[in-house]
Amino acid sequence: MSKTVLTVDDSRTMRDMLKVALTTAGYTVIQAEDGQHGLDVLAGSQPDVIITDINMPRLDGFGFIEGVRGDSRMRAVPILVLSTESDVEKKQRARAAGATGWIVKPFDPVKLVDAVRRVAA
Amino acid sequence: MDALAEIKQTFFQECEEQLVELETGLLAIEAGDHDSEVVNAVFRAVHSVKGGAGAFNLTDLVHFAHTFENAMDLVRVGRLAPAPPLVRVMLRAADILADLVRAARADAPHDAARAAAVAAELTACCAEAAPKGAKATAVGSVAAAAPEPAADDAFEFVPLAVDLSDFGDLAPMPGLNRFRITFRPRPELYAKGNDTVILMRELALLGDALVTCDTGGLPGLADIDPEGAYFGWTVMLETERDEAAVREIFDFVEWDSTLEVEPVAAPAPAEPDEEEFVFEPIPLDELPDLGPPDLDPPAPAPGEAEPSQAVVVPLRAAEPAAVPAAADAATEHRPAAQASPTIRVDLDRVDRLIDLVGELVINQAMLAERVNEAGLARMSQVAVGLDELEQLTREIQDSVMAIRAQPVKSVFQRMPRLAREVAMQVGKSVRLVTEGENTEVDKTVIERLSDPLTHMIRNAIDHGLERPEVRLAAGKPEEGQVRLSALHRSGRIVIEISDDGAGINRERVRAIAVEKGLIPPDTKLTDEETDNLIFLPGFSTAATISDISGRGVGMDVVKRSIQALGGRISIASVPGKGSTFTMSLPLTLAVLDGMVVTVAGHTLVIPLTAIVEILLPKATEVHGFGGNARVIGVRNGFIPLVDVGEVMGFRGSLEDARAGVALLVEIEGGARSALLVDAIQGQRQVVIKSLESNYGHVPGIAAATILGDGRVALILDVDTVAAAGSRVGSPDLTLALAG
C-alpha cells in the first residue's frame, strides 16, 4: 500500500531529486512538468499527496492548487508547496489558494519525507 | 551517491537550457517585448538555476543567481523598468551566470572579481527600484505584519503573536516538559487538506499525549454544515521536546485554527474544560488507524484493500453526488496540449542506421541495374515494383538524414554573447539580429559551422561596422546592425551574415593585395574580384592586428573550412551600405552530388560543388610551358590544366588534350584549375564511404562510394589533385585573371 505522491515541477533536476528522495522512502512517484500538465495527470490518477512548485510556465503553482481544490474528487488531497521563496507573501498566497503546507528548497530528503508524512493520512 | 551524481548531470544539462531561455528572453526584452510571460520566463530561468544550485551546494552560483533573481523579481513586479541599460547589465549577468555554471560543472575556478563586479551593478540597479507599495502586489495585513523568517533551509516557522512573557523562563526546561495544547480548527483547515487526526498522531509521537475532544460546538443535525468545523481538542502532552517542537507540528495549520500551547508547571491531571458536554479522554489507540507513520517503505500487506494506483478513476463517476458546489471547476480539465515528446538516442545508433540506409540505397541501385540488364519491359510488374522501392528508399534516406539534422539554433545562440563581447572590446554598439534559427542541417555541419561563423561575426563588427561617431556623421543610427540568417534553398542551407557598415573599402583592399604581392600592381579587377581578394591567404585588412580578428585566421581559413564542408562562400558589398557574406552548404555530409567521370578506365566521382564549368578543350586553347605543364585559355585568362590520369598515376600524360573533357574547378584560396578527364558518365547522388576507416588515407582521394553496378568508385579530393598538378601555376595570378 505504498502511497503515491504527484510532483509538479518544471525543473527536471528538481523532479529527479524529488523522485529519488520519495522513492527511497517507499513512496510511488508520478510526475508532471507544470501546473497544466499536473491537472492533466490528475485526470487519470489519484495521488495521496501532491508536491508542487510555484514558478512554472503555462499554469503556475497557485493556479494549479486552485484547480485541484476546485475538483471535488481532489479537493481533500494534501498539497505541499515547494519553492525557494522564503517570503511570507508568497506563502500566504499559496495558503489562500489552498496549499496544505510548504517545503523550502533546497530541501533535505529527510525533511521532505517528514513533511509528506505530516500531511498524509 | 550515484543517483545524485546523475541528477547533477541533469542539472547542468538543464542549466544550459535555462541559460538559452534566459538569453533569448533578455534579448526579446531588449528588443522591446515587455510581455509579462517573457519576463516571467527569464525570472524562472534564473530561479531554476538557483534552485538546483542550492541543492548541490554550489554557493557561488547560488549567490550570484540570487542577486540576479532579486533584480529580475523587481522587474517582474513592475518596480524596476527594463530599460536598455538595465537589460544590458542583465545580459552581462547572464554571461556570468553561464560562466559560473560551466565552472561549477568542470569544478574549475571562475573569475570571481568579474562576477562580483556585475553583481554589484545589479545591486546598484535594484537600489533604483520604486519603493515597495508603489506597484507591489497587495499584501494581506497578517502577512505584512509577520517578519521575514530567518532560517531558509529548515521548515519555516511562521511567528505567531503569542505572548509568552507570563511564563517566564519555563520554555527550555530539562527533563520532561508538560504542555497543555488547545486547538480549535476552522473549516479552512480541512479545506486545505489538513487533518486534525494527523496532527494528533504527530503530537503523540513526541511523548505521552492525552487527547480530549470538545464537542460542545456541535449544532443540531439540521444545522450541521458538512464542511464546517465544530470540534476542539485539548491535549495534555508530556514530552522531552521543547515548545518549538510542539509548535512545529502545527506549522501548517496555525493560520486556520486557534492554537494555544501552554507549558504546565505541575503534573496536574488533565482539567476538563468547564464546558457542558465533556467527553471522556479517548486513548490514542482508539483513534482511527492511520497506518504506521514511520519512514520505512511500507510492506505490501496481503489482502489489504488499498486500490492500486493503476486504477483510473473516471472523473465523473468518482464524484460524490452530494458535493455539487465545487464540481464546476472539474470541467476545467483540458486534454494535454504538450510539446511533441522526444527521446535521446545514442549518436552511434543513428550513424549505424545511416550506414545501413546507405547500403540500402546502393543495393537498390544495383537491383535497378540488374533489372535493366535483364531487358524487362518498363511497365512490367518488376519494374513498377522497383520504382516504388526506389521511392521508398529515397524517403527512408531523407527521414534518416532528418534524424541527424538539427536546427542551427545551437550555433546561432552562441553569437549574441560573442557580439556583445566583441562590441564592448572595440567600443561599438551592435544589435545582432538572427533569423531562421530553426533551419535544420546535419549535426556535423552545425558543429563545423561554429568557428567560421564566430570569425565572420567578429569581422563584421570589428571591420564591417564603422565607429559610432563615423556612423552618426554618415547619418546612420549609432547602433550598428549585424544580421545572421539561415534558410533552405534548393536542397542546401544558405547562411548569410550581413552588416550595415561601410562596405568593403576596395581601394584599400587592392592596395594591401598589391603591397603583399598577392596581385601585380597593374592588374585590372572588377569590384567583385577586388572583394574576393580578402579570401586570399595572408590577407588582413586591419592596420593593427586587434585582439578580436587577429588570431591568425583570416577569411581564407573561413573559406577553406566552408569548402571542406562542400560549401561555397561569396561576398556582396555596397560602399556605405554594408557587406553580405553568403554561405551555401550541403544539408548532409553523408550523401554528395557528384559528377561521375572516367579516367583511364577507372570511374571517379568529382564533387559537383567544386565544378564551375565544363569545357571541351580545343587545340588552340591548350598551351604547354616548361616541362610537362600545360595551361588552358579560358576567355581572357589561362588556367592550369591538370591531367587527372597522370596525377593519379593511372597512366602517362594524355598527349592530346582534345581527347578529353576539362572540368573547371574552384579550389582552395579561390584559385581555379581545369581537371582533364577522359569522359563524363553523368551526374549522380552518391553515398559517401570513408576510405580512412576502411582502408587508409590515399593522397588525392577524399572518400569512396559504391555505384549502382556494385563497383567502388573513388571520390576525388579536388584541392590536392589540382595542387599536385599545377605547381608551376600561381593560383593567385589565376584568380586575378580568371573571371
UniProtKB/TrEMBL annotation, chain A:
It holds the Pfam family Response_reg. Residues 4-120 form the Response regulatory domain. PROSITE patterns: RESPONSE_REGULATORY (PS50110). It comes from the Bacteria. One of its GO terms (biological process) is phosphorelay signal transduction system. The modification 4-aspartylphosphate is found at residue 53. Keywords: Phosphoprotein. PANTHER family: CHEMOTAXIS TWO-COMPONENT RESPONSE REGULATOR (PTHR44591:SF25), STRESS RESPONSE REGULATOR PROTEIN 1 (PTHR44591). This is Response regulator. It comes from Lichenibacterium ramalinae.
TrEMBL record, chain B:
It comes from the Bacteria. Residues 591-727 form the CheW-like domain. Pfam families: CheW, H-kinase_dim, HATPase_c, Hpt. The keyword Kinase applies. GO terms for biological process: chemotaxis. Its EC number is 2.7.13.3. One of its GO terms (molecular function) is ATP binding. Residues 1-104 form the HPt domain. Residues 386-589 form the Histidine kinase domain. Residues 290-301 have a biased composition (Pro residues). Keywords: ATP-binding, Chemotaxis, Kinase, Nucleotide-binding, Phosphoprotein, Transferase, Two-component regulatory system. SUPFAM superfamilies: ATPase domain of HSP90 chaperone/DNA topoisomerase II/histidine kinase, CheW-like, Histidine-containing phosphotransfer domain, HPT domain, Homodimeric domain of signal transducing histidine kinase. The modification Phosphohistidine is found at residue 47. Involved in the transmission of sensory signals from the chemoreceptors to the flagellar motors. CheA is autophosphorylated; it can transfer its phosphate group to either CheB or CheY. This is Chemotaxis protein CheA. The lineage of its organism: Bacteria, Pseudomonadati, Pseudomonadota, Alphaproteobacteria, Hyphomicrobiales.
